[in-house]
Amino acid sequence: MRGIVKGGLNDGGSNIKSIQKISTTIINGETTKNVTINAVTATKSIAYLTFYKTTAANASTIFISVEITSSTNIMLTRSSSNDTVVIECFVVEFYNVKSKQTGSLSLVANTASNTASISSVDTSKSLLFFSYYTNYGSNVVGNCLCSGTITNATTLTFSHINTGAADIKYIKWQVIEFY
User: Fold this and answer.
1) I need a surface site. Which of 42, 132, 162, 166 has the fewest CB within 10 A?
2) DSSP for 78-118?
3) Structural domain boundaries of the chain?
4) CA-to-CA distance for 176 and 73, rounded, in angstroms?
5) pTM of the model
6) How far apart are CA 99 and CA 44, in angstroms?
């Protein structure tokens, strides 16, 4: 005999309302691309990148940020318009969201980290999603990596190893808090 758990997936208890998989191409000559999506409630949705395919080796071409700009649009941004990049990303819409906060900041040259202030969240019920692009013109991709964390209820911290004079990361972040 099979039972149904109240609030479980068999009872319709999933908090995910919809998932959209987007596949698109940023062509040579483009630094920004707007992509139409099915309508979502932007304050209850997040976007994140999952896959890149390119022959480019330059970090300023292949590192890309994604953000929801309206209920029917996401925007992809990169620093350099050289080469073509195929991208896959997801837009996930949730039912029960307590709050969603978004913002942007830069990790600038000769600085190991930067912080963003947010309205207070319950860190045990919150997730940080972020993406970024860089102006770094090297093919040493490891120098372009960065990390982000919810440091405490009101602070996000982003860090990177390479703090060279030419390395600036432009970060788009999203914090979503659940009930």
Assistant:
1) 166
2) -S---S-EEEEEEEEEES-EEEEEEEEEEE-TT-SEEEEE-
3) 14-178
4) 19
5) 0.85
6) 8
